[in-house]
Structure formats: structure tokens, C-alpha cells
Amino acid sequence: MNQKIIKFTLIFLIIVLSMFVGHKLTKNKNQIIGFYNKVSKIYERYYFSTLEKIGLKKIGKKIDTNKIITHEENKFTKTKGNSFSVIFSKIKSYPGRTASIILSENEEVEYEIFTQDGFIIKKDNIYEINFPSLFYSSTGVRSVFTIKDEYFALSGFSTYSCKYASVFKISNGKNLIKSKCLPDIKNVNFDGLGGAYVKTEDGILLTIGAPMTTSEEISQLSQSKESIFGKIILIKNKNLLNYDNKKINYDIFSLGHRNPQGLTKYEDDIFSLEHGPQGGDELSKIVEGGNYGWPLSSFGTKYADGTSYVKNLNYPQYNEPIFAFLPAVAPSALSECPKNLSEYYKPYGCLMGLSLKERSILILILDKNNSKVIIFEKINLGGRLRHFGLNKSAKLFVDSNGYFYVSMDKDGLYKIKFEDFR
After folding, report:
1. How much is the pLDDT for 358?
2. Distance, CA of 192 to CA of 177 (rounded, Å)
3. Label partner for 212 (CA 20 to 30 A): which of 55, 259, 290, 297?
4. For residue 195, is pLDDT > 50?
5. Residue 59: is its pLDDT beyond 50?
6. Is the backbone peptide bond immediately before 331 cis, with ω within 30 degrees of 0?
7. 211-239, pLDDT tens digit by residue?
8. Residue 190: phi, psi to the nearest 5?
9. CB 180 within 8 A of CB 217
């Protein structure tokens, strides 16, 4: 097919679309600019995609490849905890923020880094996530996970009149679970969409937060069993793998969540690490059928006027956190501890979180019943820590030399190890 014909056809379609909705935008300059940017983005993406499919041109990536650098020399930084040392070294530089990191080891560590703006960095190659929608949010990808070598993603999406969330299959861009349009569209913030996950024997537990900062309408969805938002949901593997254009069923495992960005299984218990409002970040033990109170109960305070929320003691039907962070630490991930740290603290339980605001690894030592935190320690690494590197079983990846891996926003991937226990 002639390139000029392709280009003319795409431009014609864009003009028709512009005429159809343009009159609705003329009253608001910001909307006009935003609409123009979306049209430009769609044109570029699908023009080059069409050319690539017929073998004429590769897609032009919106990522600065000069900032993707592999660091071969082991230049370690060392810092001290209360009873051990921590060494860490950057192994990969790249721009942006991660959505997930999946690692494996076969002679050397192999990595797949998924970014929130829709790219996959694998060794020295860059790919683009196959989105199901023309109008996708550039910061909407919150999570990528695998089921039997098939890749799935949770993302936020935007059209002119609707913002919604979707779990979709990356290989074919098919929506598998698609939410209803969010209310209060101007106050949607997909940074609150959650995306942490844990694998069960025959399914996956996935956190889907209430994507807002101050919206009461969106917050209330956390208590509605008719909405997917503010929940931890359980999806069966067979439903994800055998999609046949029908609605995929899922179960609400727990509700009343605000923005759970960390989820892990430790022994026989599930734990969640969740953003509160102003303060009130929470570590909770998750039980099936539990209600964790948002937005009616929180140890944080309200953004608008700083007033307090109702405490859980007045609402016995709500599950209390086992630990609340005051002031907030902005948690971003949760995992069991690596083996050497777990063994050091035995017989107590050991969880490890990451913090954006405190730029730290959060070490949380539990009592013998895993019911409360008895030690809390922060190890500052100097940057906004986003995700742990996981293996395909959704467990903390630890390489043959004892290093685990953590991403730092707009910086890169680091390997880390605890040593010199005292």
C-alpha cells in the first residue's frame, strides 16, 4: 500500500474526528490543547504502527534511549542499619517509573522492566506494550504480571468523556476486565490505582485502588460491591487464559481499600501496604471477606481541612491495620524479606516495604503470631523506591549471590544485599 494513501487516510479520519468533537472544546483552552496533544499522539502511534506492519518503518519510540545504560562495573555504596550493613549498586539506568519488574537467572540475571508509560525494557531492546485503546493514559500502567508465560496488565485509560481501568492481555490487547466510567472525572488520579499482586494456587490476587486524591465520589466506590475500585480481587487463572469474548468473572476478596500498592504472602498470611490520606499509611493483614474501612475510617486526616476520620473502634465491622505510619511514608511495594534477614530475626516474622517519600527500605518485624509490628526500621537509599524485582511466581527475586533488586524513580534498577550482621 502506498505510504501517501495511508497518511492521507489517517489525516482525513483525524479531521473528521476533530470536527465532531471540536465545538465542545472551544470554550476551554486547556481542553483544546489536551485534545490536540491526544490527536497528535494517536496519529503518530498508529501511522507508524501501520507502516511497521507492512514492513516500511519501525515505530518511533517516545523514550530517550540515551538514558538507557547498563552498568557493568560493581560500584557499591554502603550504609548501616541498626544491626547490619546494606550494600547497593546501580545496574541499569532508564527514565520514568516502573509498573513491574520481572527477573530470572540463567547464567546471568535477565530482566524485563515494564514502565508506567507503556514500554518494556529487556536487555538492550525496547518494546511497546500492546494497548487495547487508542486513548490511553501515558502514566496509566500500574502493573504487569504473568500467568503461564502470558502477560497481563492493569492500566488506567482516558477518552474524551470517560476514565476507566482495565485488566488486559498484552499479546493481543484484549480487555478482560473493564470498569465502568469513573465519576468526578476531573479528579481521577491513576497514581492511586494500586496494582500489587500475589499468586495463589489457581489464581491471582490483584489490588485495585480508588484512583483519586480528594474525590468523595470516587472514595465511596471502595465500599460498593458493584464497583471494582477500592478492592482486592481474586481472578482465576483459567478465566484469564481461556478468554472467549465473554465477561470474566472475579471475586471481591476484600474491600474498603484506598490505594494498596504493596501485597505479599508470608507463611499462610496475606499482607497489604496501603497509602492513607494525610498520614495513616497502613500495613494490614488481609482476610477474605474483610472490610478495611476506607473512606469511613482512617488514622490519617482529610486533605481539605485536616480533620480526622472516624477510628475503627467505633465500627467493629471494619478490620484495623496492624500498623499505621504517622507521618506518612508513601509506601510503594511489599515483600517477604530475603533469607539472610529473615533468619537473623527468627522466630519473628519479617516483611520488607519500599517508600517513595522516605526514600527508604522499610523493615517490619512481626510478633510470633504475625499480628502486630514490634520493630520498624528505615534504611535510606537516597531516591524514591518503587518496586521490588519479582520472579514469575510473584516472589521476591534473589540472585545466586544473594542480591535482591529494587527500582528507583527516574533513575534505574539497583541490586541490594544485607550483610555484616552484628
Report:
1. 96
2. 18
3. 290
4. yes
5. no
6. no
7. 998 899 999 999 999 999 999 999 999 99
8. -70, -5
9. no
Task: Say if CB 228 and CB 165 are below 8 A apart.
Answer: yes
Distance CA 133, CA 18 (A): 18
- Residue 121, all three cell numbers: 525494557
Helix, strand, coil tally for the chain in percent (to 5): 20, 40, 40
For residue 323, list its beta bridge partners.
283
291-344 residue pLDDT tens: 999 998 888 777 777 777 776 555 668 899 999 999 999 999 999 999 999 999
Return the SS3 of 297.
strand
- Residue 182 DSSP symbol: P
From the centroid of its chain, how far is CA 163?
17
0.90 cut: is pTM over it? no
Looking at mean pLDDT, say which of 8-22, 51-65, 91-105, 147-161 comes out highest.
91-105
Cβ atoms of 376 and 364 closer than 8 Å: yes
**Computed over its alpha carbons, how large is the radius of gyration of the chain?**
22
CA distance 286 to 293: 12
Place of cell 540472585: 399
Q: Which residue has the cell 465500627?
A: 315
The helix (run of H) or strand (run of E) holding residue 18 is: helix 3-22
Distance of CA 382 to the CA centre of its chain: 21
